[in-house]
Amino acid sequence: SGILDRTGLGYLSKLVARISLSCLLFVNTMKATKENDISGYLSVIFVTLLYFIILYFLGLFIAKICHLEGEKRNLFRAGTMFSNTGFMGVPIAEAVFGSVGVLMAALFTVVGDIILWTWGVNLTVPPEKLEKRSKKSIVKKIFSPCLVAVLLGFFMGLIGLSLPEKLHTAIKGIGSTASPLAMLYIGGIMCYVDLKKGLFKKEFIILIVLKMCILPILLARVLSFIPVIPREVGVYIALMAALPMMVTVSLVAESNGADSTYTAALAIVTTAVCIVTLPLVCLFM
Questions:
Q1: At 188, which helix (H) or strand (E)?
Q2: CA 102, 122, 43: angle at the middle one, nearest 5?
Q3: pLDDT tens-digit profile of 89-107?
Q4: Fewer CB within 10 Å: C terminus or N terminus of the chain?
């Protein structure tokens, strides 16, 4: 019917990322901060940093053995490091862990957004444009709506502030649309890729096996043996590793003039495959 064409999906992604997810993160971060001892989940920050370090070296390894060069090499590394922890990760965390899951997602978002919009975004910028990025634009990107919502939620939760009931209900209602709209968006983008071509790319296959299948199981098992890290933190990080590539990477690559078709194919192929791999990974965690 032309409602969810590429242009419509673009608007839908902005609606989810800037409004729905921001409202969900704000309300649930504030609630979780009030109801839980946040100090017990600060290990999420350490584990998140470890998570990104592992994915950094995994991306380098796969790119090397697949002989990826230049721009494609950098785009693949970006796709390896950044999973769809917003569109898919937040709704999954809330469904599995409740408000604690959103608290962990909030802590993850603080670290992840800083890494994405500083070092990570450089991987999607062609070399000739890299030096033209101003510090002001970098800072603006770091303080995304989701990150601002998380920080505001933490602040209000820690000092015990509450919103007026009607305003709280309205924001919570908007946040509740994040999960169904995110699933609608993901289903929509799956219509715009040739899965056959993507499935036969060597680097895509290796990424799916190593990053989306083997790594999550290893993370869950290894982190479970570390006493200072709560069990749910290990499972949460493992679930984030099992998720497909972040669609935002493709959008940023396109805006920077890089080869967005390559990143779009990677995002959609991994999204389609995770329908099978994610439940299998959960069985072995």
A1: helix 178-189
A2: 30
A3: 888 888 888 878 888 888 8
A4: N
